[in-house]
């Protein structure tokens, strides 16, 4: 995401969310050293974008939207696939994000991509008193299984 992308990103943002980020919020976030903005393009137009934070042990998806004309065409799935590809078995093994409790479309979208709701965050948003679901995608160990502590399992 570069400066000249901002107007198209803002247009998609305002068409996608009742409580849209302002240009100042985008710029402030993108100025942070660990914050990355990425756009998906189709026919020289921005089809979608995402903003995420790189943290020590995880990635935190802050914002994701797809242009209304490009929805249900796989753009969001490809962007999340790109984010998942940045996970590693040794360091960053999970992606976290928050979804408004009223945003059923986003909840379903992320569930279909193997994200799980792991917590309810009460009164999470500054603009409303709405709750959010904390959702997580967790990278599996190589071989498709997670290690098990046999001693703890036998003790219980």
Automatic annotation (TrEMBL):
GO molecular function: N-acetyltransferase activity
Keyword ATP-binding: no
Keyword Acyltransferase listed: yes
Keywords: Acyltransferase, Transferase
Residue ranges constituting the N-acetyltransferase domain according to the UniProt record: 1-140
Pfam families: Acetyltransf_1 (PF00583)
Protein name in UniProt: Ribosomal-protein-alanine N-acetyltransferase
């Amino acid at each position: 995401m570069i400066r000249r992308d901002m107007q198209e990103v803002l247009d998609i943002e305002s068409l996608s969310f009742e409580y849209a980020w302002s240009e100042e919020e985008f710029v402030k976030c993108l100025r942070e050293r660990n914050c990355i903005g990425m756009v998906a393009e189709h026919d020289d137009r921005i089809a979608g974008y995402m903003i995420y934070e790189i943290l020590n042990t995880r990635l935190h998806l802050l914002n994701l939207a797809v242009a209304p004309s490009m929805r249900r065409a796989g753009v969001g799935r490809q962007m999340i696939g790109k984010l998942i590809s940045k996970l590693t078995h040794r360091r960053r093994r999970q992606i976290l994000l928050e979804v408004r409790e009223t945003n059923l479309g986003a909840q379903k979208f992320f569930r279909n991509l193997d994200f799980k709701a792991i917590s309810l965050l009460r009164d999470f948003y500054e603009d409303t008193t709405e709750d959010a679901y904390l959702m997580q995608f967790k990278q599996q160990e190589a071989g498709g299984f997670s290690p098990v502590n046999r001693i703890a399992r036998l003790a219980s």
